[in-house]
From TrEMBL:
It comes from the Eukaryota. The keyword Mitochondrion applies. Residues 114-288 form the NADH:ubiquinone oxidoreductase intermediate-associated protein domain. GO terms for biological process: mitochondrial electron transport, NADH to ubiquinone; mitochondrial respiratory chain complex I assembly. It holds the Pfam family CIA30. This is NADH:ubiquinone oxidoreductase intermediate-associated protein 30 domain-containing protein. Keywords: Chaperone, Mitochondrion. It comes from Anopheles farauti. The keyword Transcription regulation does not apply. GO terms for molecular function: unfolded protein binding.
């Protein structure tokens, strides 16, 4: 079994493993071929089920939803976006030459990162539910209210599809688009000068999960997300929630990690909000946004609110 695992994890040493297979004189050839085929299937990615044990094809986290597009269609789509990308490139250089970097961050001043005043502001977000992945029947949308605010609302259902595979259902999520420079170059939000996340919201009494994504270079880090809970009050009044970044904790694919640490504020790629129906909280939900911003609070000196256990070097997570 050890030789089988090595062959599956490191295909580049196939010749060495072939010689190891032939060393078993008492095993039939067809059985060896079957085992070799099973070993290859262990690392075949993209099925969205039990395969892809060691790496993932893309940053979708196992959902293989890419549509095949011909080379001709890619060229046509690229030419359509060329004017927009050049305008964005020109705006980047204009800001770089004209603007001065912020040096002083005065207490009480909130720098707005996400507003919800117009439709282009809402287009910066993506809404997903369990229904989108064939895993449930929840519905959600993000739209502007008559008063000009962003409203994330919908209906949560804990009923699961009768396929024998899904055990729990009932969630909805909004996530900001990946921040990019012109010509689709990847970029990051640099929030290293701030220490507090500020939200002006009007909720329904539910608890929502705030998600800060900090994608790394390697695929093992693609699903690292920092979470904290947003507790909302029901009723007609707005609330301003100020959450220090030191309160966020690290999780990967929904599992809280033993190896914790502060949020890398210079590598934030996405911001998101999730709501679930677990615990009998199904039905309608509504979360209204005025703005999402940042603030530097000099009275907050805490670097990280949780214990950071010293792990062995070969232990990544549990």
């Amino acid at each position: 079994m050890l030789r089988l695992f090595v062959h599956a994890r490191f295909p580049v040493v196939g010749k060495c493993c072939d010689r190891a297979y032939h060393a078993f004189g008492s095993i039939e050839t067809d059985r060896l071929l079957l085992r070799r085929q099973l070993a290859v299937n262990l690392i075949r990615p993209g099925t969205g089920q039990s395969s892809g044990l060691f790496w993932e094809r893309d940053r979708k986290g196992g959902y293989n939803t890419e549509q095949r597009v011909s080379a001709k269609q890619r060229i046509v789509d690229g030419l359509k976006e060329l004017r927009t990308e050049f305008a964005l490139f020109q705006q980047e250089w204009k800001e770089k030459l004209e603007s001065d970097p912020l040096v002083v961050f005065r207490p009480g001043e909130i720098d707005v990162v996400f507003g919800f005043e117009s439709q282009p502001d809402l287009d910066r977000w993506v809404v997903t539910t369990d229904r989108d992945h064939g895993e449930g029947y929840s519905e959600a949308t993000l739209e502007r209210s008559p008063a000009g605010y962003g409203v994330f609302h919908g209906t949560l259902e804990s009923r699961v599809p009768k396929d024998g595979r899904i055990k729990r259902a009932g969630y909805a999520n909004i996530k900001s688009l990946r921040v990019r420079k012109s010509f689709k170059r990847e970029a990051f939000y640099d929030w290293s000068q701030y220490n507090t996340l500020v939200l002006k919201v009007r909720g329904d009494g539910r608890s929502y999960l705030i998600n800060l994504t900090a994608e790394g270079y390697y695929d093992i880090l693609w699903n690292d997300i920092y979470h904290y809970v947003l507790y909302t009050r029901g009723g007609p009044h707005w609330q301003v929630a100020k959450i220090p970044f030191s309160k966020f904790f690290l999780a990967s694919k929904g599992r809280v990690q033993d190896q914790q640490g502060p949020v890398p504020l210079n590598r934030i790629t996405n911001v998101g909000f999730s709501v679930g129906s677990r615990g009998g909280h199904e039905g309608s939900f509504r979360l209204e946004f005025d703005f999402i911003g940042l603030e530097f609070d000099p009275s907050h000196q805490e670097e990280f609110a949780y214990e950071m256990y010293r792990q062995q070097k070969y232990i990544v997570a549990t």
